[in-house]
Specification:
Blueprint lengths: L1 H15 L5 E7 L6 E5 L6 E6 L5 E5 L1 E4 L5 E7 L8 E10 L4 E2 L2 E3 L9 E9 L4 E7 L4 E4 L7 E6 L8 E5 L5 E4 L4 E6 L8 E9 L2 E7 L3 E7 L8 E3 L6 E3 L2 E4 L2 E8 L8 E11 L4 E2 L2 E3 L9 E9 L5 E7 L3 E3 L12 E7 L5 E8 L4 E6 L1 E8 L8 E9 L3 E5 L5 E7 L8 E5 L2 E5 L2 E4 L5 E5 L8 E10 L6 E5 L10 E9 L4 E6 L5 E4 L10 E8 L2 E10 L3 E7 L1 E8 L10 E8 L4 E6 L5 E6 L12 E7 L4 E11 L4 E3 L3 E6 L2 E5 L13 E6 L2 E2 L7 E10 L4 E6 L6 E7 L7 E4 L2 E3 L1 E4 L4 E7 L6 E10 L9 E3 L12 E9 L4 E6 L5 E3 L12 E5 L4 E7 L3 E6 L3 E6 L11 E7 L5 E5 L7 E4 L12 E6 ...
Parallel strand pairs: 7-10, 24-27, 41-43, 51-53, 67-69, 77-79
Antiparallel strand pairs: 1-6, 2-5, 2-7, 3-4, 3-6, 7-8, 9-17, 10-16, 11-15, 11-17, 12-14, 13-14, 13-16, 18-23, 19-22, 19-24, 20-21, 20-23, 24-25, 26-34, 27-33, 28-32, 28-34, 29-31, 30-31, 30-33, 35-40, 36-39, 36-41, 37-38, 37-40, 42-50, 43-49, 44-48, 44-50, 45-47, 46-47, 46-49, 48-51, 52-60, ...
Length: 1201
C-alpha cells in the first residue's frame, strides 16, 4: 500500500508541474475499532473517494469520515502543499470495567496516512469511582510545556472537566498515567514520523488515592473541601477516629495515619489547615524551630499556623526567617509567588496588631512583644522550606547594664531607627524613667539602664561627651583616653569639648602613634575614625578626618574645639591616647605639625571643610619636618580658588630658615627642595553666595642620595637562592629588585636580578643564602662536600649565613663527616665558636644541635632531610669545605653517632638539641669505639624524668656484635653506670611525653686495662731465667777452675798467641775464622749509646745484670800452659760472659751464618753512622772487604806492657 501511495505521490508531483493544484491518491483501510476523520481547513482543498470502473466516480468533501474496516481509495486535491493542508484524526475507545480494560494493549495503526499530521485520541470509559491506569510501554515520559523534538506529543486529561491538558514528551521517568472514568489520552504525530505500534497497557481498579501522614503531638490538621469543587470523599483508615467525610475531617496527633481519597486529584478538591502550638518561657521556646515536612500534603493549598502560648509578661520573642521577609505596603497587596506570612501580636493596650509579609531577599530577624500567632499561606502546588523560622525568648529588658560616667562626662543614648518597638529605662534617684527616643546620663554615680528589646544596639547609638575647660583647670600635658567599657556593642561616638583662652590655642599631641588624614567622607580601616572641629568666628570648621598611624604628630586649634572618635558597633576600640596642653597665643585657625617619614612617601592633605569652603580671612599653618638627605615636592592637585574675593587675596606663604616666599594658588610650588619648612594658607573675604576656597595637595618626599647598582646572577649556581633583608626598625636603607622597592629581597634559584641599594650601610642589611641539594634515588646521589659557593661581589655586603637543604629518598641516610676528621657537639660549657659552627635541623624543624670540628664524633648519620646552616662575619671569604656528605642505605634509627672517646679527657654524649629534649618517637644511637688496652666507664649524669602518654622510653647498652643487652631501662626505671671493656652500642628511644621533654646526658671516661695474666707469666719467666743464670754461672766457674789448673797462656802485645809445644795457633787472625761471630747483640755492642735515651726505657727491660762488648782476658798468667788440644770450631767463636738467653735482655733472633753475615761483607743499605742503621727496605747489596779492612785495630792496655 505504501509503495502504491509513493508512486501516486510522485505522479502528483509530475502533474503539479503542469497544473497549479496538487493531487495525491492513496488507498487506506481503517481498523474496525477506530474512527478515522480526514479534514482540511483550507477552502480550496478537498478529499475525494474514488469508486467505479476505472476510478471514474469521485465524491469530494472538505472533511471525510472513513468507514471502520472498509478499504477506500482517496484522492487529495489542494492548491497548497498537501502535507500542511490536511489533518487526520484517529479516535479509539478504551472501555473498562472495575477490574479489566479492553483493549489491554493500546495500539495504533502507525502506517495509516503517515504523510499527514495525525492525532490519535483514546477515550476512556469506565464505571464511576473507577481508576484507569495506562502503563507506558517502551520509552517513559516527562512532563513538558514545549514541543517535543521527536515529533510525538502526548497529552492527557485525567477527567471530563475543562481543565487544561497535561503534556508529555518521551525520555523521562513517568511510567504510568492515571485517569478517572471519563479521561482522555491524545497523541499528536507530525507528518512522516513513525509512531510505535504498542504504546500503553490499560488496567482499572477502584478510584482511591492513599496517603500516610504523621501529625505531631501539638498539631491539629483540618482537611476541608473548597467551595465549588466536585465531590470527593476522604477516609481515615486507622487512628483513634476512623471514618469518611466528603466535606471536612479533623486530624490530631498520630503516627503514620493512613488516608484514602476517593477522587483522582484530592489536592484539587481539599485544602489543609494545620495549627501547631509553640510554648515559650521567659528564656526559651519549645520547639525552638518551626519546621514542616515538604512532603506533608504535598500539592495541597495549605495554611499553617503556629500559636505562641504561655508567653510570660515582659518577654520578647525574636523570630528569625532564613529566607527573609519584606513587609507589605498595604493589606490589599498580594504576594507575587502566593506565599504570605502573617504575624499577630497583642499590644500592651489590649489591641491585636497584625503584620503581613512576603518573601524577601535576605534573612530577617524580628522582635515582638505580646507574641500570639505566626502563619504562612502556601499556594496550591507550592513547596515550603523545611526550616520556616526559628524563635528565641528573652526578658523584655533585653539588656541591662550599669553606667558610671566620669565627672563632667555625659552619656547620651539616642534612637537611630524609629521602626522597632523599644524603650530606654534609666533609674535615676530610685525613679525609673523610660523614653523611646533619647536618654542623657550625667550622674557620676552608678545608674541602672534597661532596654526593653533584645538587641538595642541595632536601634540606639551612644555618645560619650566630656568637657575639658582649660580656663578653669590645668592642662599640662594630661593624657586623654576613651573608656573602652562603655557600650561595646553599640555605635559609639566619643567627643571631647575643649576650651582655652580666646587668644591661645589648645595643643593636641598625637606623637605616640601619629595620625593620617583621609577624605572627610571616608572611614578608617580599623573603624576608629577621628575628626577635629574648631569653633571659628564664621561657624563650625572641620579641620579634617584622621586615622591612627601617620605623620601628623600635633594639632593646635584656636580657642574652642571638639575631638571626636567614631567607632561602629562590635568594632574593637583601639584609641589614640593623646596629650592635651595649652598652647601659645596664635592668630592661626589651626596649626598642623607633620613629621615626614624617611624614604619615598607621598601624603595627601586637604583644607578644612574640604570639599566645602575654607573660612574667610582665616589662616591655617602646616609645619613640615623633612628628614635629612631628602627632597620634598609640593603639588596642588585640586586647587579651587574663590569665585570672587571681596577683600584681599588668597596667599600661600612658605617659611624656611627665616626666609619667606609668597605664592598664589596658580604659581609653581616648590620642587626638589631640602630642609624643614612651614606652609601658611590664608583666605580672602569671599562672596559667600559663590564658591569659596578649597585645596587638596600632596607632599612627596624622596631620597637625595645615589643608589648602588649591581646584578646578581644565580644561573651558574644550581639550587642557590639569596635573601636580603633590612635589620633594625629605624633605617635609611632603601632596596629595590628590578626597580621594585622591597623590605626583603628574595632572588630565586637560577635567576638574574638587578639590585639597587640607597643609603644601606652593612649594619642595616643582612645577606643570607641557601642551596637545595636533592636526588631521587640512592644510586643517583653522589658524595659531595659542603662549601660556600663563590657568589661574587654583588650584593656589596658580607654573607652572614649560608644554608644547605639536603633532600634524599626516604630509604636513604645522610652520612656527615668533618674534613678535619671529627665533629664536636656544642653543649653547655663546651660551646662551639659561632664563626665555624654548623647548625643542623631536620625537615620537621627539629634542631639536632650545633656542631664544629675537632671532637670525638667521627661520623653522624641522619635518616631524614636536613638543613645545615653556617654563620660567619663574611662567608664569601670561606672557600674551604665544611662537611663531607655521603648518601648511604637506610638505617633503623633516626640518628647514629660514631664516636671515638678521648684518652686524655672525659667525653660527653648528649641527645640531640640538648638540653631541649628529643623528638617524640625518635631513636638515637651511639657506636662507641674503644682503643685497645682501654676500658670505658659510662656514667649517666642527667636523665629526664617524664611520664609517657604513648609507648615508653628505652635506654639500652650492649657490646658491638653481641645480642645480649648489658642494660635496658624504661622511663620508670633507674639507670646504672656501666664499666665496658670493649666497643659498645648505646641506644636511646623516646616516647610521646605527656609534658616536659626527654633527654639524656652521659660521660665516658677511659682507663687502661691491667693484664694480670701477663704479669704472672712474666714473673714465672723471670724466676726460670734467674735459676738458669745461677746454674750457668756455677758450671762456668767450675770449668774455669779446671782450666786454670792445667793450662797457662802468655799474652803477646804483637804477633800471635801461642802455647808452648802446641802448634795450633800457627795462623794469623786473617788466616782463620776465629774472628767470625755467631751473632752480634746490638744492645751489648751499642748499649753505651742508648743509655741516655728514652728508647731504652720504652723497652721496659728488667734491671738485671748486663754484659758489655768483648774485652781481652786479663786474668792470671802464671797458670799452667793450655792443653794442646784443638778446640771445637764453635768453642773458638766469641761468646759473652753470659749467654744472651740467660740474661734479662731479650735476645735477638739468631740467623744462619753465611757469607754475607761475616765481617768480610758490608751491606750498602747501612748508613755510615755510629749505629749503622738501615736507610731503606731494598734488597741486600753486599761488598767484600779486604784483609786489612777486616782486621780489627784493638787498643793495647798500658798494663799489658
Amino acid at each position: 500500500m505504501r509503495l502504491y501511495g509513493t508512486c501516486a505521490f510522485v505522479a502528483l508531483l509530475f502533474l503539479s508541474s503542469l497544473d497549479s493544484s496538487e493531487a495525491f491518491e492513496t488507498t487506506v483501510q481503517p481498523q474496525n475499532a477506530s474512527q478515522v476523520t480526514v479534514s482540511s481547513e483550507r477552502p480550496n482543498c478537498t478529499v475525494c473517494t474514488v469508486t467505479g470502473v476505472n476510478d471514474t466516480q469521485t465524491t469530494c468533501h472538505p472533511s471525510l469520515d472513513l468507514v471502520p474496516g472498509e478499504k477506500v481509495k482517496l484522492r487529495f486535491t489542494c492548491s497548497e502543499p498537501i502535507e500542511q493542508s490536511y489533518s487526520v484524526t484517529i479516535t479509539s475507545l478504551i472501555e473498562c470495567t472495575e477490574k479489566l480494560c479492553e483493549p489491554q494493549i493500546v495500539e495504533v495503526q502507525s502506517s495509516i496516512l503517515s504523510e499527514f499530521s495525525r492525532t490519535f485520541i483514546w477515550k476512556l470509559k469506565a464505571p464511576e469511582k473507577t481508576l484507569v491506569r495506562l502503563q507506558v510501554l517502551g520509552e517513559e515520559l516527562t512532563e513538558t510545556s514545549k514541543p517535543c523534538t521527536d515529533g510525538l506529543l502526548f497529552s492527557m486529561v485525567a477527567s471530563e472537566t475543562n481543565e487544561a491538558p497535561t503534556q508529555y514528551c518521551r525520555g523521562g521517568s513517568i511510567a504510568q498515567l492515571d485517569f478517572s472514568n471519563q479521561g482522555l489520552m491524545v497523541l499528536e504525530a507530525k507528518p512522516q514520523i513513525k509512531v510505535p505500534s504498542a504504546l500503553f497497557q490499560a488496567s482499572s481498579g477502584p478510584l482511591e488515592r492513599e496517603m500516610t501522614v504523621t501529625i505531631g503531638p501539638s498539631s491539629t490538621v483540618v482537611l476541608s473541601r473548597e467551595p465549588g469543587e466536585k465531590e470527593c470523599e476522604v477516609c481515615v483508615v486507622n487512628g483513634t477516629s476512623p471514618g469518611c467525610s466528603a466535606t471536612e475531617v479533623t486530624l490530631k496527633s498520630a503516627e503514620k495515619l493512613s488516608l484514602k481519597f476517593k477522587c483522582l486529584k484530592p489536592q484539587e478538591v481539599f485544602q489543609m489547615k494545620m495549627t501547631t502550638e509553640l510554648a515559650c518561657t521567659m528564656n526559651s521556646c519549645t520547639p525552638a524551630v518551626a519546621e514542616v515536612d515538604p512532603d506533608f500534603f504535598k500539592g495541597f493549598k495549605k495554611n499553617i499556623t503556629w500559636d505562641i502560648i504561655n508567653v510570660p509578661d515582659k518577654t520578647v520573642i525574636t523570630l528569625e526567617f532564613p529566607k527573609g521577609l519584606e513587609e507589605k505596603s498595604s493589606p490589599s497587596e498580594t504576594c507575587k509567588d502566593g506565599f504570605q506570612y502573617t504575624v499577630s501580636t497583642m499590644r500592651l493596650n489590649g489591641q491585636l496588631k497584625t503584620s503581613i509579609y512576603c518573601k524577601g531577599l535576605s534573612g530577617s530577624k524580628l522582635d515582638y512583644f505580646g507574641m500570639k500567632t505566626v502563619s504562612v499561606e502556601v499556594p496550591k502546588g507550592g513547596e515550603l522550606e523545611p526550616h520556616v523560622f526559628s524563635l528565641k525568648a528573652a526578658p523584655r529588658g533585653g539588656k541591662s547594664m550599669s553606667v558610671t560616667s566620669d565627672p563632667k562626662t555625659k552619656v547620651i543614648i539616642s534612637r537611630k531607627d524609629k521602626k522597632p518597638d523599644c524603650e530606654i529605662c534609666a533609674t535615676i534617684k530610685s525613679v525609673q524613667e523610660c523614653n523611646e527616643l533619647k536618654v542623657t546620663l550625667d550622674s557620676p554615680h552608678s545608674t541602672p539602664v534597661e532596654f526593653t528589646c533584645s538587641e538595642p544596639q541595632s536601634i540606639f547609638s551612644v555618645e560619650i561627651n566630656r568637657e575639658i575647660d582649660c580656663t578653669e583647670e590645668s592642662c599640662l600635658g594630661d593624657t586623654v583616653h576613651a573608656q573602652k567599657s562603655f557600650f561595646p556593642d553599640f555605635n559609639r561616638t566619643f567627643t571631647w569639648d575643649l576650651k582655652v583662652n580666646s587668644t591661645r590655642a589648645f595643643d593636641l599631641d598625637f606623637s605616640e602613634t601619629g595620625l593620617r588624614q583621609i577624605p572627610n567622607e571616608e572611614m578608617c580601616p580599623d573603624d576608629n575614625t577621628y575628626s577635629i572641629v574648631i569653633y571659628s568666628r564664621s561657624g563650625l570648621t572641620n579641620i579634617g578626618t584622621f586615622c591612627k598611624g601617620g605623620p601628623v604628630t600635633s594639632i593646635l586649634g584656636r580657642y574652642k574645639g571638639r575631638v571626636s572618635l567614631t567607632v561602629p558597633g562590635n568594632a574593637m576600640l583601639d584609641p589614640v591616647n593623646f596629650k592635651l596642653k595649652v598652647g601659645p597665643e596664635t592668630k592661626m585657625l589651626a596649626t598642623v605639625k607633620i613629621d615626614l617619614p624617611r624614604g619615598v612617601s607621598d601624603i595627601n592633605i586637604v583644607t578644612p571643610n574640604y570639599p566645602g569652603d575654607f573660612p574667610d580671612n582665616e589662616p591655617i599653618q602646616w609645619m613640615f619636618s623633612v628628614p635629612d638627605m631628602h627632597n620634598y615636592t609640593i603639588s596642588f592637585g585640586n586647587a579651587g580658588a574663590p569665585a570672587e574675593c571681596l577683600n584681599g587675596d588668597v596667599e600661600v606663604e612658605y617659611q624656611k630658615e627665616e626666609k619667606n616666599m609668597t605664592k598664589s594658588l596658580m604659581d609653581p610650588q616648590p620642587k626638589q627642595q631640602q630642609g624643614s619648612f612651614n606652609m601658611i594658607l590664608k583666605n580672602c573675604e569671599t562672596n559667600r553666595t559663590l564658591s569659596g576656597l578649597s585645596l587638596s595637595y600632596s607632599v612627596s618626599v624622596m631620597r637625595s642620595g645615589h643608589p648602588v647598582f649591581c646584578t646578581v646572577d644565580l644561573s651558574t649556581h644550581k639550587g642557590v637562592s639569596m635573601q636580603i633583608e633590612k635589620v633594625g626598625s629605624d633605617t635609611f636603607c632603601e632596596m629595590t629588585i628590578d626597580s621594585v622597592p622591597k623590605e626583603k629581597i628574595n632572588v630565586a634559584a637560577g635567576t638574574k636580578a638587578k639590585l639597587s641599594f640607597l643609603d644601606c650601610p652593612r649594619e642595616d642589611v643582612r645577606l643570607t643564602a641557601s642551596k637545595i641539594i636533592a636526588c631521587d634515588e640512592i644510586t643517583s646521589c653522589p658524595s659531595f662536600n659542603l662549601s660556600v659557593p663563590p657568589l661574587g661581589s654583588c650584593p656589596p655586603m658580607p654573607l652572614l649565613s649560608f644554608t644547605w637543604h639536603l633532600k634524599i629518598p626516604k630509604e636513604a641516610t645522610l652520612d656527615l663527616r668533618s674534613p678535619t676528621g671529627s665533629l664536636r657537639q656544642s653543649l653547655p660549657g663546651q660551646e662551639c665558636n659561632q664563626s665555624n659552627s654548623l647548625h643542623i635541623v631536620e625537615e620537621e624543624n627539629f634542631s639536632l644541635g650545633e656542631f664544629c670540628s675537632d671532637g670525638v664524633i667521627k661520623k653522624l648519620q641522619v635518616h631524614t632531610n636536613v638543613s645545615i646552616t653556617t654563620t660567619g662575619q663574611d662567608l664569601k671569604k670561606n672557600v674551604e669545605p665544611l662537611l663531607n656528605v655521603v648518601v648511604s642505605p637506610e638505617i633503623a634509627e633516626d640518628i647514629i653517632y660514631r664516636v671515638e672517646p678521648s684518652m686524655l679527657e672525659t667525653t660527653i654524649l648528649a641527645t640531640p638539641s640538648w638540653p631541649q629534649g628529643m623528638k617524640p618517637f625518635s631513636t638515637v644511637s651511639w657506636i662507641v669505639d674503644l682503643p685497645s688496652h682501654y676500658k670505658a666507664h659510662l656514667r649517666f649524669t642527667n636523665v629526664s624524668k617524664i611520664k609517657c602518654a604513648e609507648r615508653h622510653t628505652c635506654i639500652k647498652v650492649q657490646y658491638l656484635g653481641h645480642k645480649e643487652e648489658l642494660m635496658s631501662r624504661r622511663e620508670d626505671e633507674d639507670v646504672e653506670d656501666q664499666v665496658l671493656k670493649k666497643s659498645f652500642y648505646l641506644n636511646i628511644s623516646n616516647c610521646k611525653p605527656e609534658k616536659m621533654h626527654f633527654g639524656v646526658r652521659t660521660i665516658i671516661a677511659l682507663q687502661k686495662k691491667t693484664n694480670w695474666l701477663a704479669i704472672i707469666l712474666g714473673l714465672c719467666g723471670a724466676l726460670v731465667v734467674l735459676i738458669a743464670v745461677l746454674a750457668t754461672i756455677c758450671v762456668l766457674i767450675r770449668k774455669k777452675k779446671a782450666k786454670m789448673n792445667t793450662e797457662s797462656s802468655i799474652y803477646m802485645g804483637k804477633g800471635n798467641i801461642f802455647r808452648p809445644g802446641d802448634k795450633h795457633f800457627i795462623k794469623t787472625q786473617a788466616d782463620n775464622d776465629s774472628h767470625v761471630y755467631d751473632y752480634i747483640d746490638d744492645t751489648m755492642v751499642y748499649g753505651h749509646l742508648l743509655s741516655g735515651s728514652t728508647y731504652n726505657d720504652s723497652l721496659d727491660l728488667p734491671k738485671g745484670p748486663q754484659t758489655d762488648s768483648y774485652q781481652t782476658f786479663t786474668g792470671p798468667t802464671d797458670g799452667p800452659p793450655p792443653v794442646s788440644k784443638e778446640p771445637e770450631p764453635e768453642k773458638e767463636q766469641y761468646q759473652t760472659f753470659l749467654d744472651p738467653s740467660e740474661t734479662f735482655v731479650p735476645p735477638r733472633p739468631r740467623t744462619p751464618i753465611d757469607r754475607q753475615n761475616s765481617l768480610g761483607f758490608q751491606d750498602r743499605r747501612m748508613v755510615d753512622n755510629e749505629l749503622y742503621t738501615f736507610k731503606g727496605k731494598a734488597e741486600m747489596n753486599t761488598i767484600h772487604l779486604s784483609g786489612p779492612e777486616m782486621e780489627p785495630d784493638l787498643p793495647m792496655p798500658e798494663d799489658s806492657l
